[in-house]
Amino acid sequence: TMLVAAAAVLVVALVLLLYFYRRKNRLYRSILSRAINQSTGHSFSEVVNQYRIRLAIQLISDTGSNPLLKNIASSVGFKSRSAFYTAFRNITGMTPAQYRDKASEG
Questions:
Q1: I need a labelling partner for 80 at 20 to 30 A (CA). Which of 1, 10, 51, 55 fits?
Q2: In b/e form, how buried is each residue of 57-78, taking b as 16+ CB within 10 angstroms?
Q3: pLDDT tens string 47-71
């Protein structure tokens, strides 16, 4: 469907953007950043954080394993717990601990 095709294009754009970030190619980095911003309405870092938080939500929702939140933060790519908590709260409206409590209730 159209949504799957759009998601595939976004993934390719993100991969290319990461490649050009590592290569320090400013022209292509700028073009891809602008394309991501225009297509999603969010910056590259916001799109990456949204993806990371979606992964974290899956891990937090797995009540069988119950990993530490700091381990989840690290496993989804956050270098600090505070950055993880800030991104999580901005995206979900609650802290990871609050989300885990809510997930364990239902």
A1: 10
A2: bebbeeeeeeeebeebbeebeb
A3: 888 888 999 998 998 877 778 999 9
